[in-house]
Amino acid sequence: MKKRHSIALRIFALFMALGCIAIGMVVSNVVTLQHLASSSETWGQKQLPVMVAAAKFAELGGQITTDATHLALAKSASALQEANQSLQNTLPKLSSLDPQKLSPKHHQEMQRLASELKENIRKIYANTEQKLLIQERQQQLRQQLYWAQIDFVDEVIPLTEESQFNLGLLMDKLEKSQVLSKSEFASLQFESNSQSQLLKLEADVNLVLDLLQRVSLFSSQTDILAAQSMIDETMVTIYQQISALKPLPSTVTIRQIASQLNDHVTGSNTPIQRALRVLSLDEGNQELLAQNRALIQSIRQFISEAVREAEAQATNTASSITDIVNTSRTQLNVTIGTIAILTIFVALYLKNQLLSRLATVLRSMRHLAQGELQTPLKIAGQDEVASLAHATNVFNQTARQLRQRTSALEEKNHQLLDEIEQRQQAENNLKETQEELVQAAKLAVLGQLTSGIVHEFSQPLAAIRSNSYLASQYLSKQQPEQAQEKLDRIERITDRATKLCQHLKSFARKTDDVTQRTYVYKAVINAIDLFTESLPEDWVTIDIPTDLCVRANEIRLEQVLVNAISNSLDAIQQRLGDDEFHPSISISAHQSTDWINLCITDNGCGMNQEQIDQIFEPFFTTKEVGSGLGLGMSITHNIIQDFGGTIFVQSEINKGTEVMVCLKPM
User: Fold this and answer.
1) What is the pTM of this model?
2) Angle in degrees, CA 339, 340, 341, rounded to 5
3) pLDDT tens-digit profile of 52-73?
4) Which of 271, 487, 546, 614 has the fewest CB atoms within 10 Å of its CB?
5) Quick one: pLDDT band at residue 322, thresholds 50, 70, 90?
6) Looking at beta carbons, which pairs linking 190-199 to residues 24 or more positions away fall under 8 Å?
7) How far apart are CA 578 and CA 392, in angstroms?
8) CA pair distance 143, 38, nearest whole angstrom
């Protein structure tokens, strides 16, 4: 009986022996490593925490300085809260440094400095919060002053224009008659003085309003006080101009607006006072930031002293660790040498007892993988390698039988390839026939629309003839402008006819099957243009977004629409004799979750269920003989399938038909 897994047992025994020797040698190093661990523990518990505290403070100090600056310079309430929240998360970390990691004297002093730092942060937050409230009010006031300035300009411009108009009348009269009556001369002086006062008032009020709006943007107290002085001087002039304009009733509104400026330049809550308050708060924040930097520097000095003490102790510990490491290195070298010798012995055993025999089996299997049949292997022994050799011999025999069967299958494959080639040829012929049927359907539709197309061209030709005759008449009468108007009309008519010709040419030609971005609205309009004569505008309603796109081919989608509209027209024609019948064709499109649904609905004669079931069959038609080929809906169905979409038809007798086309969005 074969001994299964015998090789595994031998290898396991070798590695167990190797492991036992290695473990024995490693144990000898344990005592040395314990001394190393003891020294490292002393360093980790006493010196390392101090250095870690220093590193943490370096990180926290930089973060506190940055966040405090962000707190003082916050431009919005959200930025203020974000900086304050960051500081509230950071400051407790500074205070929570373990007292045992520093000397009691250093720790007590650091706690005092941290308390002062927290108080400064609180003051900066209060100052910045107050500054943001003032700036928000300044922003609102700037908006009010801006609209007050617009209202003032809207009021004063008509008055200055009226005064200018009156002056113009008097000056024209003076130019013509060279003399003015006493009353007219007085009016001239009055209008001149009024216009001068209005212009001065407009300039002064605009100056004050501009300064009030811009004062919040000044960055120095000198500029703000200079603006205050200029505003005070200008307000004196404004009061004088208001008094001078009192005789004019039409200036009551602008005088009121000018008088209201006093509310913005006097008192304790003016834009000037707010701007000064903001500067004061900014200066206070800068002083507090400077104090913070000094406090952080003081804390850093205390921690630096503790670090220097820890470094001195760490130097002694490092010297002790170095001695222990040297001893451990010697023991480790001995251990590695012993393990290397044992490893070489195991490698030689594996090579002679396993790898050489296994290589023979693998060589035979490699030849089998390349399709080369081999003679049976002869491997001695009763282990796993011998079992693998036996399995390889069985596989070799099986491969011989498989090669014989493969030859028979190859002959069958050649026969199948011939049949596939014949079927592909038949499929190509069928596709060519289908394309010819599609082109025939297009030409059939164009044939049905011939009368409308002829009318569409006959009207422009008649209009061109009439306008060309009129143009020649105008030219003979030396009236080039009227002649040019007629020639422009001829150009517009010819452009329209040219576009129609291009549209008919595009529709009639063969198109490729490439799908691309296609605008549904454009395709619908192009299709309706082919029915200009037979489809009145009041019959059709379109509800399609102009930017709605589908994955389709524009010409083939237009053919689908032409087939559907043509069928709707034929159905409506059969009901035109009914009383109270109002023809209607509705074309709409909307996007659902994964599809764009295009619906063509009419209120024609409709179909029964039997006709609906056969509507997509080739050569099926409900029209009279000679009126259609019965290919329109069949071709439509194939086109929509090529687009990857679906088409549905619902209809009721004497109620109408709905054709729904579902296409993929682009």
Assistant:
1) 0.34
2) 90
3) 666 666 666 666 777 777 777 7
4) 546
5) confident
6) 191/163, 191/166, 191/167, 192/167, 193/244, 194/163, 194/245, 194/248, 195/160, 195/163, 195/164, 195/167, 197/241, 197/244, 197/245, 198/156, 198/159, 198/160, 198/163, 198/245, 198/251, 198/254, 199/160
7) 90
8) 73
